[in-house]
Design goal:
Elements lengths: L1 H14 L4 H29 L6 H6 L1 H4 L4 H25 L2 H16 L13 H22 L5 E6 L4 E6 L1 H28 L1 H6 L5 H5 L1 H24 L14 H13 L8 H25 L1
Antiparallel strand pairs: 1-2
């Protein structure tokens, strides 16, 4: 929801555009596919886990916690994916092929993230795909569904010659990319914090995540560095004149994030410190979003 709201507010502030029907369709589809991905992840963790006890499994795996049948879980997945696909298709009918292509690709990544012979979540690429698709693609689509008729991306046919022309507004796309960086790094770090906390358990369950490949020390360095990249992107957006000076208020959250980093460096625990990564995402991005909302109303 954070990257979705970020893109929506940017569409309002920068393009002065908002289409309620498209907003609701994307909101519903996004929520359904996110829950479907989580359900698939729980199911496959349950089926593949070698270690089926301990805090991380018994508390966080809903199938174990609520003693659910696999058939029930499969039915939930089918219903969620179907609703998401139907809403996504209606969104495509309201917009154009860009939404269809990126939506289909996002659906595919959402499924193979947890499903298949080698799910992405069990590889060193989990952070890249979660941060990239949730943090970058979702904000872009959240903007694009309101401004699809303004030629951010355009494919035109030249029927007489049987050719197509493809054009991009690179400047605007770069701005949207920079805008999305704080959300992307925050989401990637939730995945990274989760994997750092679960290193021993993941090894036992044959999940070869990024921290296992690069080691805990390097993983903690990456964890801290990504937040600073997020703050740097916010400063750069202001210097480029993309967002107003008021968005620099987001920097006021930096000392709190640094404090959370210090706590996490001392102890990496799913029960005690993992939630700090979620708090950091919300701190950075909610304040960033609210500052854009304030700027929008002052400029209206």
């Amino acid at each position: 929801m954070v990257p979705f709201l970020l893109g929506t507010v940017y569409a309002l502030y920068h393009f002065h555009a908002f289409r309620l029907e498209n907003f609701l369709l994307m909101f519903g589809s996004l929520l359904m596919i996110d829950m479907a991905t989580t359900t698939i992840n729980n199911l496959l963790d349950y089926k593949r886990a070698n270690k089926k006890e301990g805090y991380g499994f018994e508390t966080h795996n809903a199938i174990v916690k609520y003693n659910m049948k696999e058939s029930t879980v499969m039915a939930v997945i089918v219903v969620l994916v179907t609703i998401a696909a139907v809403l996504g298709f209606f969104l495509y009918l309201n917009t154009n092929f860009v939404v269809l292509l990126l939506g289909a690709l996002s659906f595919l990544v959402g499924v193979v993230y947890s499903f298949g012979p080698i799910p992405i979540s069990r590889t060193p690429f989990g952070e890249i795909f979660s941060g990239g698709f949730m943090g970058l693609v979702i904000p872009f689509l959240a903007v694009y569904i309101h401004v699809f008729n303004q030629d951010l991306i355009n494919l035109s046919s030249i029927t007489s010659a049987g050719l197509f022309t493809f054009s991009l507004q690179l400047r605007e796309l770069l701005f949207i990319f920079l805008l999305s960086v704080p959300a992307a790094v925050g989401i990637a770090n939730i995945m990274l914090a989760n994997n750092i906390c679960d290193m021993e358990e993941d090894l036992e369950n044959k999940r070869y995540t990024l921290p296992i490949f690069i080691g805990k020390r390097n993983a903690l360095f990456v964890f801290a560095g990504l937040y600073f990249i997020g703050y740097a992107a916010i400063v750069l957006l202001v210097l480029l004149g993309v967002t107003p000076w008021i968005t620099l208020i987001t920097l006021a959250t930096l000392p709190i994030v640094v404090k959370h980093l210090s706590i996490f460096y001392k102890k990496q625990s799913k029960q005690d410190t993992f939630a700090l990564s979620v708090k950091n995402l919300l701190l950075m991005n909610v304040i960033f979003i609210l500052s854009l909302v304030i700027a929008y109303f002052f400029n209206s």
